[in-house]
Amino acid sequence: MNDVPSIAKEIIKESRNMTAIQSFMASETQISKYRAENIDCLELLVSILLTRLSDAQMVTNRMGDSQIADCAQDIIDEFWYLRLHEIVFILNEARKKKTFNRFDQSVIFECFNDYCQNRQSVVEESRRFKMEKEEAEKQEEIEIIKKAYEEYKQGTRKPLISSISDTKKVVIDKEHEYNTFKALYLSKKEIEKQQNQQQNDEQGITNDA
After folding, report:
1. Of 151, 16, 202, 26, the residue nearest 92 (C-alpha)
2. CA-CA-CA-CA torsion for 62, 16, 87, 61, nearest 10 degrees?
3. Which residues contact 141 (CB under 8 A, 6 or more apart)?
4. What are the residue ranges spanned by the domains of the chain?
5. Which pLDDT score is estimated for 177?
6. Largest CA distance in the chain
7. pTM
8. Residue 66 has what DSSP assignment?
9. Do 164 and 172 meet the contact criterion of CB atoms below 8 Å apart?
10. DSSP helix/strand/coil, 160
11. Is 164 left (phi over 0), alpha (psi -120 to 50) or beta?
């Protein structure tokens, strides 16, 4: 969190029109992790988000800078298990709330409590969505493997790994042959995934430097 205002701006942009489920799934990092790393930056970030909400409210009674800072600290302490995009979602929803010409910590915490009371349903729905997505990706991968295997058998596709042609020179049944091909295929995909991740990590280090 070196450039907190820019981070806040980016999170606000990413969170525009997000649903509760999308905000939960946007990141797996709880704010408690950021608190442990740099609480000052986290407090500043949440304060910026609160100030943005305060500026959007057409009310007479609103919080001052010190009250916003105190509110940010209390949010971090009490709702440490939330994720940054969830906080932005809650504050975006707070814009729609009737405040009766006041905007203070009690109004904000009411919005947070309303969300957290229903958060378990958001978590469960997110898990279901993730499982369905993973299953769809798994089925897509299987179809790709089947197609690649058929091309390999017909001689129109070269082996993905040289060792596939060096497999034991014995007669094996089709299921064993298919499983061997599948294992080699998935191994190659995993290697590519790890290489891409390493390149991304190295690129991230370069950018941070």
Report:
1. 16
2. 10
3. 186, 189
4. 4-117, 136-208
5. 62
6. 84
7. 0.64
8. H
9. no
10. coil
11. alpha
Q: pLDDT at position 162, please? A: 44
* Amino acid sitting at position 30: Q
Residue from 121, 114, 74 nearest 93 by CA: 114
| List of the chain residues with pLDDT < 70 | 1-2, 98-100, 152, 155-185, 187, 200-209
Q: Bridge partners of 61? A: 102
Token duo for residue 42? 């986290």
Beta bridge partners of 62: 103
48, two tokens: 């910026």
Given 3-state DSSP classes, what are the helix, strand and coil percentages for the chain, each rounded to the nearest 5?
Answer: 75, 5, 20
In one-letter notation, the amino acid at residue 141 is E
User: Which of 50, 101, 58, 103 minimizes the C-alpha distance to 74?
Assistant: 50
Q: Report how far residue 68's alpha carbon sits from residue 153's, in angstroms, rounded to the nearest whole number.
A: 67
Does residue 159 contact residue 152 with C-beta atoms inside 8 Å?
yes
Both tokens of 33, joined, read 């992790």
